[in-house]
Amino acid sequence: MEIQWSLVLFTALSGAGAWLVACAGLDAFRGLARKTVVPAVICGIALIIVGGIASATHLSHVDRIMAVLAHPAPGIFLEALLLGIDVVVAAAFLVLYKREASAGALKVLGVVAVAMAAIFSYSCGSSYMMASQLAWNTVALPLGYLGGAMASGTALWYVLCAVRREEAQALSFAALETLVGSVAALVTALVYGAASGVMGGDASVLFWLGVVICGGVAPLACAVTGLKKTEGALPLAVVAAAGALIGSVAYRVLMWTASVALMSLFGVGI
Amino acid sequence: MARNCIVVNLDRCTGCFGCEVACKMENGVALGERWSKVLTVGPVGEYPDMTRYALPTMCQQCENAPCVSVCPTGASYRDEDGVVLVDKEKCIGCKYCMMACPYGVRSWNAAEKCVEKCTLCGHLTSQDKLPACVKSCAAGARFYGDLDDPNSDASKELAKYDAAEIHTLQDVGNAPATRYIMTSMIGQWQERVEPKGHPHTAASPVAE
Amino acid sequence: MSQATLTRRGFLKSSAAMGAVAALGISAADSLTAVDPAHADEAGEVKIIKTSCRACIASCAVLAHVRDGRVVKIEGNPESPMSQGGVCAKGLAGIQALYHPNRNKYPMRRVGERGTNQWERISWADALTEVATKINEVSDKYGSEAISVSTGGGGNPHFSNVKRFGEAINTPNVWEPGCSQCYLPRMGASLLAYGAGKPNNLSFSDSNGWDYYYTDSPVTSLVLWGTDPSNSSVATGGRALAELRNRPEGLRTVVIDPRYTLDAAKAEVWLPIRPGTDAALLLTWTRWILENEKYDEEFCRTWTNMPYLINPETRLTLKATEAGLPGTDEDYVIWDPASNAPVVVTYPFNEGVAAPLFGTFEVNGMQCPTGGQLLKESCEEWTLEKGAEICWLDAGQIERALEIYTDPNGQSGIMQGVCIDQYVQSQQCALGALNLEFLMGNVEKPGTMLQKFAPAPCKDQLGNTPRLLSKEKVMKRCGTIEHKGILCWDMAHIPSVFKAMKDGDPYQIHMWIERSGNKHVVLGNSSCLDEIVPKLDYVVQCFMYPTAFSVLCADLLLPTTEWLETNLTIPQLNTIVMRQAVTHLFETVEEGIIWTQIVQKCAELGNEHCPKAFDEAACMTTPFYKNEYEKQKQHLNKLEMSWEDACEQGVIQWATPEEYRTYQTYLADDPENPGKPKGFGTPSKKLEVYCESNIILGRTGAPWSQCAEEAPLVLPPASADYEPLCYYQEPAESPLTDTEYPLVLTEGRLPMYHHGTLRNIPYLREIYPVPEMWIHPADAEKYGIADGQWVNIESRRGKTHGMAHVTTAIAKGVVYQERFWAPELLDSDDPAQAYKVMNINVLTKNDPPYNPEYGTYTLRGFQVKVSPSDDEILDSVWVRPEQFQPWMPAPSDATEDVFDYGA
């Protein structure tokens, strides 16, 4: 199939944004990166919304978009719903944080933000699980969506912490979060690569270079290094984030290029 | 619920492409777009045991139609007679249904920027007429009707054959209603095929 | 497209005005087409009119839905017993043909040089005067034989009328590319050997095999010999086979075809024969049937001339006078084994004489073989193994096919396709196949292919007026002293006509009036026209839309009607299907009316021969009609109905199926010889297995030679005897010896096109935009051809292109491609490419050797080579569906007929 860039950008950006918000939410428990939380949530919300707008450019009749809301169903309705909820959660967290609400409330919202990031980024991928698309119809596909979003979200958090010159402990923890995210990206990508067969197919170069090396190995290496090396963390974080985002985009691109329809009898491209 | 669909007897079908043109003329389908398409499958096998047949394709009227369940707006829907249809006024053009269709038999109307497909010529059947492709089928190979109604043309034609001679395209849980009749006179039914691509009309089976 | 092309195309805009110059080509609707876009949306009442299609010769009954004078829908009419409501892609696309924006709409006169594609509109009155004046001038100056007239099977033709026209303007040089290359050999052979005419031969797709349209026919197996009814007669022949196969008892089939067609795919045995070797396989079958004694001995003895003794000196049947027996020189002689002596045949047969079918006997000092003996000797060398070797087949599969054909518990028949009409052995193959049917007794029995069912009261072909031509003119007909078989259709030999046009040998032809689509697409070695046409003073073409011939050759274009604008009666089994004009566009005119109008104008301008065309005494048959009303009356013939009533009924049943299906007519009482059976229409009233009539044809022209003064007209003999029995001759270009051009080419029908027509129909071109060249994977590998790739195909005559389809559906060593052309290139800088770029007839042969009887040249079974192509011209060929948008229909309102109806 044709690469649907609107949809690629949608899930890559919104997913990263959701996980960025999740990292800020997690900080409610440790309070290590107080300078970063507000810009991170604002960036997260911006990414989610930009991603959402990108998805709408895929539609030829945006004017009829309200019909989606009138028709609750899995797929686009669910994605839109989750996207909306995530923005609300992020905004609520931001307001409470600004108003210095109780730690308990922030912790609750922090947990919700993490859960929402996982559910949202997974759901964006699960919409593509369909019996008609043989290379997509595996739970490994949405797990990979989740993994890529997690790696890019955590790495962005790492970047913001470094930009805001947080303490070493905060940077080290951000590196740990990035490590978890990149491991998730790496493992889920490998699982999907094996399950769908793309790791050995025509798209194997994109898979190994783009998804595995850029999206998994590179941020993982940066994160491992950053666990100890908190001085000059910014370049590490930037490389990790760039790699994770490239990997996340590559994974989604790969999904389109490596799609295998059960049958395409009319030979019509999408 | 009724299971209205087209039944094609491939023993009779001569591969003339008449159904394709009848459909386009009746429904004003644009150049490059189609709701109905004839493929020629094969040859498969070695001389003298070879299989080649024409395979007219169109919306298979699945019982568990994935296109309906994935549609975010309800534009893809099933009407009161159980016919899977597209309400073009509601289509936002997300093409989700095109991805979800196991057979790739939905069409993109480039002018109206929405998805459309075989309607079983509901505008004709509602007046007790036959779908255009059935009415003019040069080989008398197409039958329309409700599989649950033993008196429908489709059911009556199917009743003449053994179960082993009645086929569907590969079912991945969507339960296509459309039946293809093909006996050993022709050879081996291929449940999953892939077109060679324009401009050829040939298709080959996909090895599992 | 170049800038120059685009600019020229712009001229179309101004062509509405009389005399304005325009180019014909690929443009969208021009201002000649009075389109009111709002019209189609008006909800006027829809009238459903019964008519019949003429996108091919099958003439399927259709229902035309007409709203406010415009055809909005076509569907099948289930009342036809043949098509039963079916219509194929060609017929369903009829609206796109009718309202094609590039229809020829008005008479157009060329301005500027030929090939520059510049035209001006003129009135019908001017056009008729111009043509008639030229005819009269050429006739006066050079003799009327210096005018050649041609037609063809594609594009709503009426064959016999073009012959009438030729006879009316006193020229014998009427021809069409079918004829010797399509149908005439099978029909002619049947006339000679079976004594039965047009509808009674082995061609199924030319609408024979009537019994097979009834599912209660006891036929159990059929041999489809080089025919693919599913492609060539989709809704009639193709449908009939579908119905027969679908009976509980089914239908066993054998398909002999280099292609694994969809008919072959349904067959029990497929024999992928090497093109050009059919006669070898026929001889192999004949030998096997004789050797295994599968023939119907009693039938052969009683109803064929197999037991008749042959005079070795005359090569004709031994006559009583030659045998020294009492009787006349019309009495035949057989051998009586009981008396061990020759006896004179007492028609229908000598009671108690078991005349041997085989053997040679001494009579009156001569060694006289029987007809059967000569048949046996003719196939002596053709063992299964030899046949398999020559035909590139498997001996075991040949035998399986034979067992099906000769199954003693079944009834079989042979359907013989056009392939055998398209190379040098046309008559031989036709006679050979008839003999198989005769041997098996497959004649006029329920379930046999050969039938003489009751004739319909109406006429689709009106017949021509051969006796309008004087002996002098008949003797000047090009090529028919050597190839007398063509006289069966009163036509001329195409290569001989071309020789006269090009070299003035034996005299110069100066004028050519042509009615058909694209001669460049259908003629063998069609590039030969490049050298021929410049020698002609004046060329007229009548057709529905411009073709390569229009742009490259024509000086005057006359617009003809599409089938939705035409009237005709069509016999279909026990019914008559009416074709009626459901609309009329612009100034188009049905070709028959054009012909009669020209003849009348010639007469008016002083031509002394032309008035005879309307004189029954001079014609010695029904004279030419003068208008549509008279034409309709002639078509209705014995059907006692008004044209309006007949059209209202649409499909008229004139007999019950039982009354119509008259079997074994040869056993019926002969009114001229009471108490005796009628027999067959041959001189001996027997089936001529030993076809001496073929010899007589070559020596004298009988039974087809005639003229104003004499019938029969005895012609001088051909350079060599025509042979009475099938024989095999290796093709002149043969894969067995050709190292430079290693592959054999075959052609074959497509279901969405007919002859050279319909390549400008958007919905058909998008299905099949360019011709596929089928090649076996082994050959593709050998010549570096990939699937879906453009390829060069070259022969000793030229080069063209096709798109490779690598498939096991074609025999190894053989490539297949069908005729094609690219109307999109007409209005380009090189309009000749419209016919050259992907037209297999650029490669075919029209040089000797020819078939002795019919002068058939070689369209199949010659040598080519293939290679991958990246020729630039291929970029200009339309392949993508959206490219055909300029040809989408431009509906317009009906107009009045140009000429008076006449009633």
TrEMBL record, chain A:
Coiled coil: none annotated. The chain crosses the membrane at residues 6-29, 36-56, 76-96, 108-131, 143-163, 170-193, 205-227, 234-254. The lineage of its organism: Bacteria, Bacillati, Actinomycetota, Coriobacteriia, Eggerthellales. It holds the Pfam family DmsC. This is DMSO reductase anchor subunit (DmsC). One of its GO terms (cellular component) is membrane. Keywords: Membrane, Transmembrane, Transmembrane helix. InterPro entries: DmsC. It comes from Adlercreutzia caecimuris B7. GO terms for biological process: anaerobic electron transport chain.
Automatic annotation (TrEMBL), chain B:
The keyword Manganese does not apply. InterPro entries: 4Fe4S_Fe-S-bd, 4Fe4S_Fe_S_CS, ET_IronSulfur_Cluster-Binding. SUPFAM superfamilies: 4Fe-4S ferredoxins. Keywords: 4Fe-4S, Iron, Iron-sulfur, Metal-binding. It holds the Pfam family Fer4_11. This is 4Fe-4S ferredoxin-type domain-containing protein. One of its GO terms (molecular function) is metal ion binding. It comes from Adlercreutzia caecimuris B7. Residues 4-34, 50-81, 82-111 form the 4Fe-4S ferredoxin-type domain.
UniProtKB/TrEMBL annotation, chain C:
Its cofactor is Mo-bis(molybdopterin guanine dinucleotide). Keywords: Iron, Iron-sulfur, Metal-binding, Molybdenum, Oxidoreductase, Signal. InterPro entries: Asp_de-COase-like_dom_sf (IPR009010), MoPterin_dinucl-bd_dom (IPR006657), Mopterin_OxRdtase (IPR006656), Mopterin_OxRdtase_4Fe-4S_dom (IPR006963), Mopterin_OxRdtase_prok_CS (IPR006655), Prok_Mopterin_Oxidored (IPR050612), TAT_signal (IPR006311), TAT_signal_bac_arc (IPR019546). PROSITE patterns: 4FE4S_MOW_BIS_MGD (PS51669), MOLYBDOPTERIN_PROK_3 (PS00932), TAT (PS51318). SMART domains: Molybdop_Fe4S4 (SM00926). Pfam families: Molybdop_Fe4S4, Molybdopterin, Molydop_binding. The keyword Iron-sulfur applies. Residues 46-102 form the 4Fe-4S Mo/W bis-MGD-type domain. GO terms for molecular function: iron-sulfur cluster binding; metal ion binding; molybdopterin cofactor binding; oxidoreductase activity. Residues 1-28 form the signal peptide. This is Tat (Twin-arginine translocation) pathway signal sequence.
